[in-house]
Amino acid sequence: MAVISEQIIKQAKQLRRELHTRPELGLNEHHTSQKISELLLSFGLDVHTGLAGTGIVATLRNGDGPSIGLRADIDALPIQELNDFEHVSQNPGLMHACGHDGHTATLLGAARHLSENRHFRGTVHFIFQPAEENAGGGQMMVNEGLFERFPMQEVYALHNWPGLPVGEVAVSQGAMMASQDNFYITLTGKGCHAAMPELGADPVVAGAQLILSLQSLISRRLSPLEQTVISLTQLQAGEAINVIPETLHMSGTLRCQSNETRMTCWRLIEEYVKSVPLPFGVKGEVRWEFGYPVTKNHPAQAEIVREAAEHSPGVTKVHFNNPPSMAAEDFAYLLERCPGAYFWLGADGAEPSASLHNARFDFNDDLIPLGIGIWVTLVERQLKDADA
């Protein structure tokens, strides 16, 4: 069982708070990237910069053997922080509201420990990925040759998880996070005086019917066993209270737990948008903004995470094959190209953590030694040193 030194834990916690004060949006993590690179070089790793602009891959080799990757996300969110502690964000309108500062500090702590205690044989690639929040930095790194330049047999990532107590881990042999797509619907009718609706074609009434129809799509066109969410979140129509408008704009998000269901929903939503408004004399069109695919763990690697967590110091319980989250994650792109697994690390201490993407969220530093321990245990178990 790996024992992480107090010096490494202290450094990681100090770094986490430093990063929290300097949040940067995706693809603009220049200070963050520079700080990460400097530390990795000080640990004696081979450091490669520039993937997806601000992304970093640091390589630690210790003899011949397999190669695995460990990934942390490094970007922040466009949220004005409402906390008042000393390490509050110094960049107005930006904050680490999802814990990427903690993920980064944890992986750096693991890199330092493994560089100083090489109880493994093989290669570890430490992947620091920009732009997880919406911009798809994971896909960019894959497209720019992540797995060609840094061949690896497996790849792993963790995320802190409010709702689970500190010391608990969750991992599944399948979907962990949903796909995420945005859709933009335009309904075009015929404007007229609000007192004479028979002279026009009302896109607002057609839109109301379409909203209800899209919800019935889930309950009547999909299996009850399929986990899917369609949320209409924006409506824009009209300029005057006594005018039936020409157009209605609607937008929303689609979340699915399987790629097969995702493609079925694409087809059905387009079908509904075109057909439901027709009896109202209204034409419907939809434009898609395709987002992240399902974050789907490979069964063997999920089992590897479970076993590593069960043998890591401080882990009190491992939840296996729990229901997935309807949130999305661009680690999905890495899992589409390489066997691996994504897991959750409980974040609730004596008081429940604020939710992710909340203006009062702060990463729980008690997770840092737990996360470092899991990473180190996983590496040492997967890259066994026959001479150890």
Report a brief summary of the structure.
The chain is 33% helix and 27% strand.
Structural class: alpha/beta
- Alpha carbon gyration radius: 24 Å
Residue-averaged pLDDT, rounded?
97
Q: Helical proportion?
A: 25-40%
Strand order of the largest sheet: 1-2-4-3-5-16-6-15
**Beta-strand residue percentage:** 25-35%
Main sheet summary: 8 strands, mixed
Topology pattern, helix = H, strand = E:
HHEEEHEHHEEEEEHEEEHEEHEHEH
The stretches of 5 or more residues where confidence is low (pLDDT under 50) are: none
Helix tally equals: 10
The backbone outline, from C-alpha atoms, is elongated
What's the number of extended β-strand segments? 16
Please report the distance between the alpha carbons of the first and last residues: 13 Å
Walk me through this protein's architecture:
This protein is of the alpha/beta class and about 400 residues long. The protein is built from ten helices and 16 strands. α3 links the parallel β3 (about 65-75) and β4. The chain is elongated.
Keywords:
elongated, eight-stranded mixed β-sheet, four-stranded antiparallel β-sheet, 388 residues
Annotate the secondary structure layout.
Layout: H1 6-21, H2 30-42, E1 46-51, E2 55-62, E3 67-73, H3 100-116, E4 122-129, H4 137-143, H5 146-149, E5 154-165, E6 168-171, E7 175-177, E8 179-188, E9 192-193, H6 203-221, E10 228-237, E11 243-244, E12 247-256, H7 259-275, E13 283-290, E14 295-296, H8 299-310, E15 317-320, H9 332-337, E16 340-348, H10 367-382
